[in-house]
Amino acid sequence: MSSSGSVRKLEVVSPVPADIDIANSVEPFHISEIAKDLNLSSNHYDLYGKYKAKVLLSVLDELQGSEDGYYVVVGGITPTPLGEGKSTTTVGLCQALGAFLDKKMGQFLLKVIYFKLTS
């Protein structure tokens, strides 16, 4: 199962469960699946268990000459009473830009947030 090809059905639960209960309710993707989706070979990162890795700076050497991307900072957002904040807004922004431009936008960020929630 590829991490980019997996779609999970949204289940609305009331009352909203605690963060730890949400995190324990899903099976995180193995970090090697995410690295594969990002076109990173195994010599570009060091594993720290099944779900974490450190990306090596040698990746920058291989990216030289490739087209630069854009870096969008989402900051200064006042959270709503429902708890939507920078992460939720950033994910929504990535999804909207990706749909509009027909490109993968923020794929790595989405996965980082996913692992932050499930680790």
From TrEMBL:
Q: Which organism is it from?
A: Theobroma cacao
Pfam short name (any one): FTHFS
UniProt protein name: Formate--tetrahydrofolate ligase-like isoform X3
Quick one: which gene encodes this? Answer: LOC108663799
| One annotated GO molecular function | formate-tetrahydrofolate ligase activity
Query: One biological-process term from Gene Ontology?
Result: one-carbon metabolic process
InterPro entries referenced in this protein's UniProt entry, alphabetically: Formate_THF_ligase, P-loop_NTPase
Entry keywords, A to Z: ATP-binding, Ligase, Nucleotide-binding, One-carbon metabolism
